[in-house]
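Still learning. Any example?
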Amino acid sequence: MATSMALRVGKVDRILDALGDSTRRRIIRLLSTRPMSVSDLAKPLGITVTAVTQHLRILQSCALLTSRKNGRVRMCSLDASGFATLEHWVSECRTSWERRLDRLGSILEEDDT
């Protein structure tokens, strides 16, 4: 169980590191509208196809996107699994903090009586 949690936290760390870069966040926003080719992503970002490919490699390693080769064109789309990992982590954090705040509220109510 502890190993599973450590693996998940490692994945979350990689996802958050990946999303810490503004270009990668822009790629995510662009892909949220529709799948796009690498060259189609490069145009609005104003960077080279090589630079886009490097960013895509990082996002793909975190399971935030997938890519497939269609002839000579590499098409990219979002991958829900990385977002699900992040969502689960946020939910766990929220639940933990809500329990702590509930306990604090109970302690404060006891002090009032």
User: Anything to note?
Assistant: The longest strand covers residues 65-70. The two ends are 41 Å apart (CA to CA). The CA atoms of residues 6 and 12 lie 10 Å apart.
